[in-house]
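DM from R.C. (forwarded with permission)

"hey, sorry to bug you on a friday — could you get me a structure for this? deadline for the figure draft is monday and I only need the backbone to look sensible"
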Amino acid sequence: VPVALFKDFRYVALGHLHRCQQVAANMWYSGSPLAYSFSEADAAKYVLDVTILPKANPTVTKIPIQPVHPVVRRCGSFEDFFRDTCNAFADCRNAFLEISCTDTCLIENPMNQLKSRYPYLLSFRQDEALRREGLSTINERRDLLQKSKSNLPSEEIFEAFIRDIYGTLPENFEAEKALFVQTMTDLQREMQE
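My reply, with the result:
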């Protein structure tokens, strides 16, 4: 909608956008009073105090809001947060927190380990470790497929696939493997007939 359509209004209060912003001299988005996602982390929030007097331009004053639990994102290694010997993350202890972990190895159960120090921790991202884990898994799969061209037993490919999907072999794996081998044998027999 063109801003010019609102030129005859002294003040236009717009809604829905989460960030406080002035669109034109007479048009404002107040923004949301609180951050509702980590994409708004560390964003300043305001209430607008608007004074409209007869025959005068309105005055708009931005009043900052200090939430009880700010929404913040921080980045670092697991040890940085777990030990925090320098109190570098002291400001995060009362915040709704998302941690982006820079470690290249997956951390087991990080939320439980960090909750005592950061009780409002909501998200622990391990993107780097997952990316590396995914690349190594892809490379392992490629190696297996290359070997399979040189008659690698299909049971080994099946086992690698199950490990890849579940991270480990299930308790009943031997029964599943036997069923797979029987199915492969039946298929090979059908193809030869």
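R.C.: lifesaver. Residues 96 and 120 are 5 Å apart (CA to CA).
me: no worries. Strands lie at 12-14, 21-24, 27-29, 46-51, 59-64, 71-76, 96-101, 121-125.
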